[in-house]
Design brief:
By secondary structure, this protein is of the alpha+beta class. The chain has four domains: about 55-195, Serine Threonine Protein Phosphatase 5, Tetratricopeptide repeat; about 205-300, Sandwich (Immunoglobulin-like), CATH 2.60.40; about 365-535, no CATH class; about 540-590 and about 605-690, no CATH class. About 40% of the residues lie in helices and about 20% in strands. The chain has 20 helices and 24 strands. Strand 9 (about 370-380) and strand 10 (about 380-385) form a beta hairpin. The chain is extended and about 110 Å long. This is ANKF1 protein.
Length: about 700
Amino acid sequence: KMTQQMRDLQLAQARKPPGPSSPNAAKRLYRNLSGKFRVNYTSFDEGSLAGRGEKEKLRKSYLFQSNAALFEAVELQDLDRVQELLKQYSPEELDLNTPNSEGLLPLDIAIMTNNAPIARALLQAGAKESPHFVSLESRSLHLSTLLREAEQRVNELTAQVVNEAPNADCSEKEKQLKAWEWRYRLYKRMKAGFEHARVPDPPSNVHLSVASSSSVQVTFWEPLSVNSAVVTKYKVEWSCSPTFSPLLGEAVVDKLKSLHYTIRGLVSGTAYYVQVSAYNMKGWGPPQASVPPFAIPSNWREYDGRAPRRRGQAEALDHLLGQVKTVHQHCVCHEPCKNQPQSRKHSVSKSLKHLFHAGSKFLKTLKRGLYLTAIFYKDDNILVTHEDQIPVVEIDDTYSCLLMQDFLWFTKVSCMWDEILWLRQCVTVSQSSCSCILQTRFKMLLAISQMQGLLGIQDLGQVFFEPIKDKQGNILIVTLKEVKTNQTFESVRWVPICKLQTSRKSVSSPEEPTALDTLLISVQDKLAYHQRSSHALSPGLYLGYLKLCSAVDQIRVLVPEQLPNILCHVKIRSNPNISREEWEWLQKMASMEEPVSAEPEAETSQNHLFQELQAAIKELMTLVNIPLQEAKDFRLYSQEVLDFGGQVSFLLLLPPSDDVCTAPGQNNPYTPQSGFLTLPLQIFELGEKR
């Protein structure tokens, strides 16, 4: 059968232009063809094609050529070209796991020529070994057949070239002879690589950790030896016995982008032993036991039977909000206030008329007062009115001093953009001594409704953590929202930010910039803050640094500028779970009155956590610019592990009790100088919940 395939291949080559006469010639040939492979299909004039069938045929032709180019690049050991093709085409388009006419896959050629870089690139893309090689004998027989038939073809062509007189056919056969000689050398190199290979060494750095109350996770690295063939998969085995008899289960890991495996469905409180072995074309190597040798599925909450802090809170709040809405449906606050003083009644009715009047528009200039602006952005563009102004509406023209409590109330309202109409009905303008506060907040709700109506959208985004003020007495509350789709808005259009900034400079006063000028000058910083504050941490266990500072009317928390929705932090490990044994050890450490050497025994999960914590504390102190010797009195918060959605958890590092919160005017050495900012605590809490 193989001989017939080779004859068919020979016949096909006789009909084609001459093949490459040498490796260098072949390399030049497919590189010249590669320019054709990269043709953009959409650049063709569709009218020149007979129809959809012709276009599909043309597409398949290019994909076939790309598959041939990949085989050629692997055979010529051209790593750059292999990476280029893998990036340009998907595995399906390349037919990455479809054998060629010789029964080989690109990965087979790479591993049998022991080209580890190309083999790893193919494995990362999802390449597999040929399913034809079910045993060592079948692989060896297949290589011997290919080598024998290539040698036979070389001998036949050599005899023809020697015996025939020089002519066009002779020149053609000389080229074929050189190509077959090169292929013969390739098969010979592949066979030698296979014969000299040995089974792989055990994987290195096999580490076992507790992932939850019913699972454990094993991570590992490639074998340390570089002399064996490329490893193409791994096998994870687990048992309740250190001898692995009986075996409870096994799993094959053939996706090698990340070398780890989570064993699920285990029994809490039971010890499980795990070992990992590697596989190459010569078979499975010896297993490597994990460190520690076993793990017991558990969670830190099992130490004292503590329930999750947030269990049922969201449901309870939804139920409470529903009850409040039900009560307010029949409340007198929904009826017009007939007993209000004339001046106040006139003020409210004027605001309502302004809201619903057809001529309601955005403001062009600011007078002394409190205003709301909404920043909608997409890439480098920003939404502006038809007068090229950022959308601004007035909240209160008599309000020259924004109290922090009013601003924080506004930020909480931003979590309920869809409920503004209902909130307006609930916030009544009473005649009590608190009416000035209610007046301001009612006007805030009116301004929000007006902005929503003019833009034609309910969600105005996230409130920037501090208002913008100027010397003219203007106060600007800023909301930020990124638009990721081609969404249309009413009364506004998209304009490049740089163009808006340039036009604003020409009309503004550099000596005394208004709040709008300040906003435009710093708009990139605010957009960067908004984007960073929406970033999520990757799964894992983190060490956070809690540092507060107090002011007259608020408490602020220290956060990194690059991730302002999270405390200053470093990553301890990728596994977010703290096991019961680890938490028990941390509690023991926290209960010690005097610092003593408490390093746990080697090859235990506690010892591994101890080493991880040591490294994390040093990294965190360097990050916040605090000398390590000054952190000798710092302590770990031992009341609980902060859990965020099950995939991210935090241990907190605290300064000494008297220095956790710095008083106004107090010079504290535990506050870093640069790369950080302080947010109002309520703003930080809202950002964390988003």
